[in-house]
Amino acid sequence: MSPHSSTADAQLPLSLKIASAGMAGCTADLMTFPLDTVKVWLMVQTQSQSTASRSSAGLVRTVINGVKQNGFLSLYGGFAAGLQRQVSFCAVRIGLYDSVKGFYMQLIPTSTNSKQVPQRILAGATTAIMAATMFQPTEVVKIRMQAQTRLPASQRTYTSSVQAYRSIFRHGGIPELWKGLGANATRLSVVNVSELVTYDLVKEFILDHKILNDNPICHFTSAFISGFVTTLVASPVDVVKTRYMNSPLGTYKNPIHCTKTLFMQEGMKAFYKGFVPSYLRLGTWNIVMFVSYEEYKVLAHAYNNQHRVKKINHVAATS
């Protein structure tokens, strides 16, 4: 935890920190969801589809074709499921990060000058696995609803997120709703560690060397770097997770089989399909999420202080 913000953050109730993280995730998703949809379109496109219609393989052509065939709103297909995912995942993986990081720092103490990177990595992985284990169905529904927006409305399987949950449960039960948990937990751990640890360290470096003050410009810079590192590291895992979760029952035995099949059939480049929209999306998402998260925490601090003053005044008036 940064020495510049640890005291203030420690005074903020966990419930307000979780709420701030959930709202920040929704704010970021609202602005970047179309990029995420295009990324999914590219990732689920097989080599045979790309070869049969090379004009649709590129990012710009994919967007133009999708919007031309199904309208601009197709870019927001599954948006309700996306918000459900963000508010739940971010509340856990980001909202609990500082608390879990503090736990590991006490459990595995090091020297005062240490950046305690292993403890940060453990915290990021832990909260990511917690989020995926608890809310995996929201990820499955989001992916499938985004993927189907490439099709005409008459050919789509799901009409709403509620109907999607019911349909998936009816046809595959609990295992189908939690399909790809291992792949998603792995991917989310990589993303969470890359995002939060990179943001943490870059922000601390900027503040420790007095390059910038603790303000939105500092948060923007830290988030921008965090987004690039995260995209570079997480793209291969993201492709496997997306392909596996969107595949018909029985296509792949498990995520490892999916990885081998992709490599054998499509080569290494398959793992970086959708890299450009992934970078645009993750970079933008990180900037909006971290900047808004810091601002939401400021508002939460103000609310908490106001509530505390009112409580003290009430106690004084009644005593």
TrEMBL record:
Main location: membrane
PROSITE patterns, per the entry: SOLCAR (PS50920)
Any one GO molecular function term: oxidative phosphorylation uncoupler activity
Coiled coil location: none
A cellular-component GO term for this protein: membrane
GO biological processes: adaptive thermogenesis; mitochondrial transmembrane transport; response to cold
Domain of life: Eukaryota
Entry keyword set: Membrane, Repeat, Transmembrane, Transmembrane helix, Transport
Subcellular location: Membrane
Listed InterPro entries: MCP, MCP_dom_sf, MCP_transmembrane, Mito_Metabolite_Transporter
SUPFAM superfamilies: Mitochondrial carrier
Membrane topology: Multi-pass membrane protein
Solcar-type repeats, residues: 12-103, 115-205, 214-299
Similarity comment: Belongs to the mitochondrial carrier (TC 2.A.29) family.
Protein name as annotated: Uncharacterized protein
The organism of origin for this protein: Ciona intestinalis (Transparent sea squirt)
Native organism taxonomy: Eukaryota, Metazoa, Chordata, Tunicata, Ascidiacea
